[in-house]
Design brief:
single chain; 646 residues; alpha/beta; nicotinate phosphoribosyltransferase; TIM Barrel; seven-stranded mixed beta sheet; 17 helices; elongated
Length: 646
């Protein structure tokens, strides 16, 4: 019997095998199946597969899909092994000491704002919560740990690991897509000490890159402005399939409009877009290769689109005062072929063949920058595209855009817009002057800044490498620090002041001014009363205790929500478009000073809020004291506050 031919069914559906099932197969075979041959992972294979070897792959087996998309119907793999080895070693130490069930708390935050800006976008929360739900060690995981940990470890510890889950863990967090600032906890985790310790690497892995790429995308959105469409096209240069899918998802949260990644679109519902490549155009040599008959949109007999395009090419070249013979015939054939295939979605790539000089006829110029200018350098693709687009228009269709992939993109966009407007006016086709112009070619933040300075007619920008690889800062640098054990605050003391931690479980507030802009994040101990709108707060800057200022917030917002309790997500999670909308609202609330992407004029005010001038540590909880032993601990932190008089 032949293998199952159910569409897209891989050879193994074991949750630890790096293959996924896009849809369940309804049929079940009445006999046992061969075990999965994934290393160290015993499993049964998909119910429709006969007991045949996993390798080599049968000729009819479709391409296999990568694991990790959260919407995959396959069971999510156990997440507990997604950890550094030393987490398990420390867990054993806690277990041996009988401290493994001690109540503990940790916080996840970053120390410095990324890309030398002032903010980050918090992302990865939904994935982190899914990871918590899947937190467990399978029998195979425990067996593997036995093989890599010292042989002196008690067997009972491995039995204990097999029972672990996150049912006693509570997680509070700032909503995904929110603006987050340095040293303000994005996540707070409470639970048994051993489990809180084991979650560190997992949560950092799921939040670090997600927040970094979302922030990078948000910066591109701020530079591009609200009207330019941004397409993420980094699949081919991303750090593997998982990195590519994450980049598509989190750049969408950061403000991109669509992706070129088909799988990301399928899994996450992100709009997918694409143009055409140079290889398609280069594959044609002449119009003789093209089957070019196309019926008018309103109906009727098919028309020879190639002949119609040739006649329009003559008219376009007459307008642009250039010989039609200079237009590349293979390129024209490619455009005609694409137009016949996609008459309602025709678009052109203009820079496959360069070097054609076109003198625009001044009476038809509509873009001021080209008037009285030197001859506009254009591509062979420009008259060819115009000819095919006008031929399509004659049959009732409308072209949807062009793309540029080399050269001075801003200047070319203005010159091409002039040609489009000239054709639209001369041939009385009003929509022609507004044909969207897309650009690509290693676009960076600097590119967008240049577009803004020079002015452009660009409508869509495709960004790949400089978005998904975040070359300006390869990691956000999130850290996960223990802040409390058994009700006693914990802190790290080090000569590097930046690495000193802020002890105790905290409540986080965001304060807003009269203009509606947030101006301060306030951290208070959990037992302290919350500040209120209109209350005068005395601010004391640590290290400069003699300098006291007053602030009166117009609005006070409690930032953290409880998302995970008793092993389950307890707060409804928003959809991806809802997270994206929240991110844009959060960014728009920032003052212009905080939105600056380079060398912000102000830093974000984050303040520590003990009810006295300093925080000391007794046997259990922070308490008030009259001396100042902790000033050096908190000296790097901008300030403290307490309620002002009255």
């Amino acid at each position: 019997m032949s293998p199952c031919l159910h569409p897209r069914v891989p050879l193994c559906c074991h949750p630890r095998c790096p293959l996924v099932l896009p849809s369940p197969c309804p049929l079940v075979l009445p006999f046992p199946l061969s075990p999965c041959r994934h290393p160290r992972v015993p499993s049964r294979c998909h119910p429709l597969l006969l007991p045949t070897p996993l390798f080599p792959l049968p000729p009819l087996t479709p391409p296999l899909l990568p694991v990790s998309p959260p919407l995959s119907p396959c069971p999510r793999p156990a997440m507990a092994p997604l950890a550094d080895l030393y987490q398990v070693s420390m867990a054993y130490g806690h277990w041996r000491a009988g401290r493994h069930r001690a109540p503990a708390a940790a916080e996840l935050f970053f120390r410095r704002p990324p890309f030398r800006g002032s903010f980050a976008l918090g992302a990865g929360l939904a994935e982190g919560l899914r990871g918590l739900r899947a937190f467990r060690f399978s029998a195979a995981d425990v067996a593997y740990l036995r093989s890599v940990l010292p042989s002196t470890i008690d067997d009972a510890f491995f039995d204990y690991l097999a029972t672990l889950d996150a049912s006693e863990v509570t997680v509070t967090a700032i909503p995904e897509g929110s603006v987050v600032f340095a040293r303000v906890p994005f996540l707070q985790v409470k639970g048994p000490l051993l489990v809180v310790q084991l979650l560190e690497t997992t949560l950092l892995c799921l939040v670090n890159y997600a927040s970094l790429v979302a922030t990078n995308a948000a910066r591109f959105r701020l530079l591009a402005g609200p009207d330019v469409k941004l397409i993420e096209m980094g699949l081919r240069c991303a750090q593997g399939p998982d990195g590519a899918l994450s980049a598509s998802r989190y750049s969408y949260i950061g403000g991109f409009d669509c992706t070129s990644n088909i799988l990301a679109g399928k899994l996450y519902g992100i709009p997918v877009r694409g143009t055409i490549a140079h290889s398609f155009i280069m594959s044609f040599r002449s119009l003789e290769e093209v089957q070019a008959r196309l019926p008018p949109r309103a109906g009727g007999d098919p028309v020879d689109l190639a002949g119609l395009a040739v006649s329009w090419l003559q008219r376009v070249c007459d307008l642009l005062r250039t010989p039609p013979g200079k237009a590349n015939q293979g390129e024209l054939a490619a455009f005609v072929s694409y137009a016949v295939t996609f008459p309602c979605d025709f678009q052109g790539l203009l820079d496959t063949y360069c070097g054609l000089e076109i003198m625009l006829d001044p009476p038809w110029i509509c873009v001021p920058v080209v008037i009285n200018a030197f001859p506009a350098r254009a591509r062979s693709g420009l008259p060819n595209f115009c000819a095919v687009a006008l031929a399509l228009h004659q049959l009732g269709y409308q072209a949807i855009g062009v793309r540029l992939d080399s050269g001075d993109l801003a200047q070319q966009s203005k010159e091409i817009r002039g040609v489009f407007q000239a054709c639209g006016a001369h041939f009385q086709v009003p929509w022609f002057g507004t044909i969207p112009i897309a650009v690509s070619n290693n676009i960076s933040e600097q590119s967008l800044e240049e577009f803004g300075r020079e002015g452009s007619e660009i409508d869509m920008i495709g960004i790949g490498t400089n978005l998904v690889t975040c070359p300006l800062q390869p990691s956000l640098g999130c850290v996960y620090k223990l802040v409390e054990v058994n009700g006693s605050p914990c802190l790290k003391l080090t000569e590097d002041e930046e690495k000193m931690t802020i002890p105790g479980m905290k409540t986080i507030y965001r304060l807003y001014d009269a203009a509606g802009h947030p101006f301060m994040d306030l951290m208070a101990l959990e037992e302290e009363p919350s500040p209120s709108a209109g209350q005068e707060l005395g601010i004391r800057v640590l290290g400069r205790l003699g300098e006291t200022t007053k602030v009166i917030p117009t609005t006070v917002e409690l930032l953290h929500r409880t998302y995970f309790r008793d092993g389950q997500v307890c707060e409804p999670l928003p959809s991806l478009p809802e997270v994206r909308t929240h991110a844009q609202v959060s960014l728009n609330l920032l003052s212009p000073a905080h939105r600056r992407l380079h060398e912000p004029q102000v830093t974000w005010d984050t303040h520590w809020t003990p009810m006295a001038d300093n925080l000391c540590f007794g046997n259990s909880k922070p308490h008030l004291c009259g001396h100042v032993p902790t000033l050096s601990i908190l000296a790097k932190f901008p300030g403290i506050w307490r309620p002002g008089p009255g």
